[in-house]
Design a protein that fits this description.
The protein has a single domain, classed as 434 Repressor (Amino-terminal Domain), CATH 1.10.260. With about 100 residues, it is mainly alpha-helical. It has five helices and no strands. α1 packs across α5, α2 crosses α3 and α2 packs across α4.
Length: about 100
């Protein structure tokens, strides 16, 4: 796996977590409280300021009621799809667009 793909997957995980939180109408504070994390941690993950640890991802996924394996697969699929759309002829992948 390339660094670019890894970064794109990380970006997509952040986007998907935020979308799932918003779909459930959970505030940053409520998700943080239920996951036993700080609001700042959740915010930094969603903004891609910090990458979550496995423990943090498991806590967030549990509160959101989502399967972590499925989340990662969805993120990878989206990242690969975006990479395919953005691949110029020189083979370099452009950074993903923000959602």
């Amino acid at each position: 796996m390339t660094d670019q793909l890894r970064d794109a997957i990380s970006y997509q995980i952040a986007c998907l977590l935020k979308a799932e939180r918003q779909k459930r109408r959970l505030s940053l504070n409520k998700l943080a409280q239920e996951a036993g994390l700080s609001r700042q941690t959740i915010s930094f993950i969603e903004q891609r300021v910090q990458n979550p640890t496995l423990d943090t991802l498991l806590r967030i996924a549990a509160v959101l009621g989502i399967d972590l394996d499925r989340l990662i697969k969805r993120a990878r699929t989206r990242a690969e799809r975006e990479a395919g759309k953005n691949s110029p002829r020189d083979g370099k992948v452009k950074p993903p667009k923000k959602h």
